[in-house]
Amino acid sequence: MLNPSDSLVDWVVKTLPGMGAGWCPPGMLGIGVGGTAEKAMLLAKQSLMDPIDMAELKARGAKNRIEALRIEIYDRVNALGIGAQGLGGLSTVLDVKIRDYPTHAGSLPVAMIPNCAATRHVHFVLDGSGPAEFATPSLADWPKVSWTPSPQATRVNLDTLTREEVGAWQPGQTLLLSGRLLTGRDAAHKRMQDMIARGEKLPVDFTDRVIYYVGPVDPVREEAVGPAGPTTATRMDKFTETMLARTGLIGMIGKAERGPTAIDAIRKHGAAYLIAVGGAAYLVAKAIRRARVIGFEDLGMEAIYEFEVRDMPVTVAVDARGQSVHQSGPDEWRTKIVELKLPVTAA
Questions:
Q1: Beta partners for 292?
Q2: CATH class of the domain whose range is 154-329
Q3: Which of 54, 82, 192, 203 is the right S-S partner for 295, CB 3.0 to 4.6 Å?
Q4: How far apart are CA 340 and CA 228, in angstroms?
Q5: How far apart are CA 67 and CA 98, in angstroms?
């Protein structure tokens, strides 16, 4: 709830970096202004249903105050250098949408909702004539996706991984993981922390193992597992010290940045945090050859699984010395944008 004289643009530019990279930038920003706090949030959500048209808007120029605000926020946010996946770059937002509504003269309700680049929705009207039917999109309409491991990537055998090997990894280094990988996210971590506090034995030995923050979807047909993309790692920050200090865990995989508490624990215990690409759950699952539940089966998708993976691509985001690419990357790009006067227009 801003004051009427406060700058909407300054608030967005100040607030966005604190939202981290868990929303998988680059994407869209939906902003609602006016009404009540609840109305502003609804407006922000509704604005994200509008088509992406920033390129056309910048080409013809703003015709009103809202369009001028969209362009100003777009340029200033991209100048932050946050970039794709929060690793630094020119494109943090692809478009900015704003909807407004009358409000009391003494207040300025504002809501902001980030939407990842994988923005998927369909527009339709229910007219009472019968069930709504939609044609399945043709894969021929999409570019062919192919991927081969980079020859510069470091191959890692998870079954023989040592703390010394983890300690040699460098920030930004690309790894190809093969072997047995454990999984666990919010519910599993909460249960494990409670069990450790009570002195109970965990159902899984984490010594010299790596855990993947994921809740996999059930497989269909010949799949070993359904889409299995990383979840936002900051939610596990409060469990990191316990897991590293009490279980023998030496590595974690998720998406987005880690907070100061987790980074301190990683540095203290000589562990590492790796990131898989957010928003590519189906493609990540292609590296998983087998999957089985080995703990907390009652938690469903949040149970502890053991995956057998082959050439699963990840990037070292926080190394054993506590160096984070989510800090260094945007810092470097902010400097480049200023020094080279680079344009911040997203592709």
A1: 306
A2: alpha beta
A3: 203
A4: 39
A5: 8
